[in-house]
Amino acid sequence: MIKVKNLVKEYKIDGETFRAVDDVSFEVEKGEVFGIIGLSGAGKSTLVRCLNRLEEPTSGTIDLNGVNLNDLNNDELLEARRNIGMIFQSFNLFNQSTVSENIAYPLEIIGKNKNEIEKNVEEMLEFVDLQDKRNAYPSEISGGQKQRVAIARALSTRPKILLSDESTSALDPANTEQILNLLKSSVKKYDMTIVLITHQMEVAKNICDRIAVMENGKIIECDTVENIFNFPKTARTKSFIKSLPDAVEDSIYTVNGFEGKLFRLSFSGESAKKPIVNDLMKHSKCKVNILSGNINTLSTGEIAGYLTVELAGAEEDIEDALMKLSDENVMVEVLS
User: Fold this and answer.
1) Is the pLDDT of residue 243 over 70?
2) For a Cys staple, 93 with which of 44, 138, 154, 326, CB 3.0–4.6 Å?
3) What is the average pLDDT value for the chain, to the nearest integer?
4) Alpha carbon of residue 145 to chain centroid
5) Going from the N-terminus, what domains does the chain have, and what CATH number goes with each?
6) What is the band of 246 on the pLDDT scale with cuts at 50, 70, 90?
């Protein structure tokens, strides 16, 4: 569906070359929700804007359904963009147009007749549950409703690909959940593929099939949502899935006074449902001290979580405890 190879985007800033996207390659399968997560300035928004050539890549290739976007002239690019919808953090609605008129706009641009437009607008209003707001103006509806209008407008031309650039960042948790549920439904109802940009792992874990982590313009890790949570490889990915702020959790690792060793225990699948640590505390000769922890339900329905623990006691008792954890498919990371 989407194949990106060796993509580079550079800017000239004060005579210096700044590389916002640095030799990025990835593929997205049809019907997949592919998340790209990173801190502000990581290059993720620039990357997604290259996918429909709102930003012109410096080099590299972008292949959508077998068509190389780099080779298209302006008319061909406009035609290709009919299959690519996009939603933003800022909604980008026309303030002087009603909800229905906003949804109808892209259909008018591509030359649909009045009956087709009315039928499509009605279907989209029903899909985003805004039938009662059809004649309202953007200033008269909430932020969550504005984003639902933006989604309806983006989907009105039935694109095969939807690019979502921080579309929930300005919303409260309740509206965020509504928008994510709407995006999930759109994948099934309209047979779509979604590339979702976010800086929030909470968003990514609730909707994505796979997640790519960006830092300094590069993809530093890319895997299924289960493996990202259960087996994070980079420090940046680990920081995204921590439940506590880095400064708080790091202080646990560095504080003086622990008599034992510190470990991070990662649980997933069946191991997350068992009272493994409780059994360890009952039957192990070493002392088990729980310092912090977190548990998540992923987009696949799988449970994943971790505990930061102190194990104190004789060396052989600690080794025995670690063996018992390994036998239960718990991944152990030594922290100190």
Assistant:
1) no
2) 138
3) 87
4) 21
5) 2-225 (3.40.50.300), 242-334 (3.30.70.260)
6) very low
